Amino acid sequence: MHYFFRSILLICLLVGAVHVTKAQTTTVELSNNKVVVGGQTCFLHLVKEKQTLFSISRAYGVDLAVILQVNRKTEATVKIGEVLRIPVVDAETVLSPVLVEKEDNNFFYHIVKKGDTLFSLYKKYEVEMALIKAANPEMGESLRLGTIVKVPKIVKKPQVSTVPKHDKNYYYYVIKQGDTESSISRNFSMNLRKFKKLNPKLKSTALKIGDWVRIPRYLVPPEYFVEKKVVKDSVVKKYEQLESVVSEVVPIPVSQKKIRIALFLPLYLNANDSINRSVSYRDTFEIVTERNQRILYSKSHDFIRFYQGVLLAVDSLQKEGLSIDLHVFDTEKSVERVQGILAGLQYTDLDFMIGPVYQNTFSIVADFAQRRRIPIISPLSPKNSELTTNPFVIQMNTSIQSICGAISDYVCFDLDTKNLVVVHPDRYEHLNEFQLVTDIERNMFVKGKYWENGAMTYKKISFDEYGLVGIERMLSDTCENVIIVPSTKQPYVENIISNLNVLSQRYDIRLMGFPVWQRYNSLDAELFYNLNLSVITPYNIDYKEDKVDLFVSDFREKFKCEPNDFSFRAFDLCRYFSKAVGAYGSSFPDHLNEVKLDLLQSNFHFKRVNAFGGLENQGVHVVNYSRDFKIRHTFPKYKYTSEVK
Fold first, then answer.
1. pTM of the model
2. 509-539 confidence digits (pLDDT tens)
3. Structural domain boundaries of the chain?
4. In terms of CATH architecture, what is 258-398+544-604?
5. Is 460 helix (H, G, I), strand (E, B) or coil?
């Protein structure tokens, strides 16, 4: 009997609980309790089950961002039993209540927080921006704080496994959910240490579902070799339906008129002021005398010219209809100065950053940019330490490794009836330029270029050991001799070039070189022409072109001085990235190679260095000093295939 009444009572309680829960999902009871905090009247609202911060803000008609600010919250989350302060608002400013949709099988409902952008949603949910915009037709170019964005749920296509076929020695076991190294080794009666030794990749990567490990075949029961085919029609069907929808969405370039740029340069403004004035004293008066003709502090000279190139680019962009908001900061070479600058940039919206130029200051700003998800451009250094670990870093100056890859691709593009000769120093394997030799040999012997061209030959010789006599024995008098010198050491390069010049009258020679060779002032330019030197370089200025002549004229007129290489580089860089932002908005890093722009000295082509790293400019020019004493400038005919190792 007691059991019967207890059962009835329990059922009644459950029915009551269900009824209460249902009521709580549909309404938010407004509080009448008020309190004055800091001169502002607020309701005190007790959070109950099923209530969200968004539903509470709509019930009271107060913007979500205001509630977050008053309650000092950084995220739009609440706990049952938490007491919130809700500001009392005028009737005119009350928001009209809306029905909050529940999460369903088709969408995530993302509440916009500070710092959210369309690009950041794309990165977080891995959903194309075009699909997010299509699901939110009322969305503008910027996301409003506190609003809800519908993000389509993507059913990912099942990936085709790349598991090797079982062979006579090993069985390739596919990792399933719940598998661990210990459980797998136990399952196959295998020593854990032996299991790890057999699968060395586990030292650097954890087990992933769908990945594979090797198991000695003799430890595997026969039933494991029976294939099991499971066809999941529903998953494939859903993917095909989604794929048909995605294929109909054509990404449309974003039209952004206002570009916000931060420029960090060591301008040394205080030092420039000091050297251009002198202070003297007469009685109790301080007399400041300015120089008639201002001079530049030596450490700032090139960076002032860079800044002037940016100013000319901004001027040209504004004439083309873009609005440029340029923030310029003098970093000097001071870490403390840069940290102070960044403290003032916490709440500044930026499309991209340029600089700083010194590694000690660049690292600090790059870390800030990564946290804020702002692309940051390294304008000058060819070896930025942040490039391989920070996906927001964009390195403009091509690394020596990429130059080596470009020379290799250029040399191996057309190998018919050529004699390739590598002239190297002794013990050069530790040099960065040694990669040029490995790249060439990979192109020829691994990729098969050598076997495709029976008429070509390949030789290597140490100049230190065999000298000029040894080199001459390597040359052919029946075909072109392409000589490659994997070095940027000035004394060594000068010695080889001087010796090769002796042979240039008797043999058909084409010398391949690095861009830094052009800056060796002690070398007579006539040697370059005699040896038919070809240089692969990321930058080249042709002063015969009208666009270059116009830039130089504008620069002289505006700044009363001559532009240098930094000025041209800054002009190209600033125009290119501003145009990219104007066309593609915050997603511009994914579209950099789609920007079509006539540049002064650059041939930009960007590649991501690895899955977690940034972008490197690997676009190059070929500059040839031909025997008719003309300098010819061309772009490579080969496709960009150089690899970052």
1. 0.60
2. 999 999 999 988 888 889 999 999 999 999 9
3. 25-100, 170-225, 258-398+544-604, 403-537+623-634
4. 3-Layer(aba) Sandwich (3.40)
5. strand
